Amino acid sequence: GPSGGANRTVQVQGISPMVDEALLAEIFGAFGTLTSCEIKHEQTGVTGYCCFADYQSASAALAALNGREVLGSELKVTFLVVSSGPKEDTSTHPTVFVGNIGDQIDEYSLYEAFSQYNCSDSRIIRGDDGRCLGYGFVTIRTQEDAKAAVTAMEGQRLMGRPLRVSFAKTPRLSEADGLQSQATGMPSSKSRGPDVINTNADEVARQASETNVTVHVGNLLGTESEDTLRQAFAEFGEIDNLRVPGKNFGFVQYKHHMSAAKAIAARNGQTPLGFSRALRCMWAAEKSGGGGGGRSMPP
């Protein structure tokens, strides 16, 4: 069976009925030495298992053949996930944020990159189209190893790109929001003290430059539509643009700075109609880094 050799084995779905084990072995064997190749007829359909002698070959085969059409059927190639006993509880493990990762990095290559630091899990954050959004997280079993990983891996190249590595703001892998401030290099919540929710729109308005008209809305589930978002934010002023580029965050861009300030003041920490979790609303990072407007608004 396809046991052992974790992550040297790829699982192949979408195999044409005309493909037999010999042909499958020929196709996948072009990328390296195969130690086994079998096709199994399971309830879910036909699945092929190709086990390579090393991870590099398996990885190359996956990159080249996933989505490739063979005899009129498109192959879906993934790493075989070998579950060994009960899954380790990683919820208490320190989480490290990894930014500037390329499209071709998957969970396993991210895990491999951090494996010498006692890494327990890895997660790549993807958009609705399945493409990597450029960042991910790894959990590491001890605080010491996590510190060592952050120090050693910052700036290291993974597939040609220097990684940005820091402690994640959120303690668990499952919460991927709070990234906006992470990505803009703002201090993490540890150094800022607890997040105090400010409901005074005038004070909120002074926290960002007057050219900033965009609210970053975090802690979404990923199932909310743009319409739901629009309904929750329409009452504060005219909305120019609205988008939900990631699973758990979106942006609402108003015509006026004050409208955005009112929205943040009213909606941060609230769970409006159509949402199932309390929203995290804050000023979106400004690309140009314009100066902060300190002028207070008329009441």
From TrEMBL:
<feature type="region of interest" description="Disordered">
    <location>
        <begin position="174"/>
        <end position="195"/>
    </location>
</feature>
<dbReference type="InterPro" id="IPR035979">
    <property type="entry name" value="RBD_domain_sf"/>
</dbReference>
<protein>
    <recommendedName>
        <fullName>RRM domain-containing protein</fullName>
    </recommendedName>
</protein>
<feature type="domain" description="RRM">
    <location>
        <begin position="213"/>
        <end position="286"/>
    </location>
</feature>
<dbReference type="InterPro" id="IPR012677">
    <property type="entry name" value="Nucleotide-bd_a/b_plait_sf"/>
</dbReference>
<feature type="compositionally biased region" description="Polar residues">
    <location>
        <begin position="179"/>
        <end position="195"/>
    </location>
</feature>
<feature type="domain" description="RRM">
    <location>
        <begin position="8"/>
        <end position="82"/>
    </location>
</feature>
<dbReference type="GO" id="GO:0003729">
    <property type="term" value="F:mRNA binding"/>
</dbReference>
<dbReference type="InterPro" id="IPR000504">
    <property type="entry name" value="RRM_dom"/>
</dbReference>
<keyword id="KW-0694">RNA-binding</keyword>
<dbReference type="Pfam" id="PF00076">
    <property type="entry name" value="RRM_1"/>
</dbReference>
<feature type="domain" description="RRM">
    <location>
        <begin position="94"/>
        <end position="170"/>
    </location>
</feature>
<dbReference type="InterPro" id="IPR050502">
    <property type="entry name" value="Euk_RNA-bind_prot"/>
</dbReference>
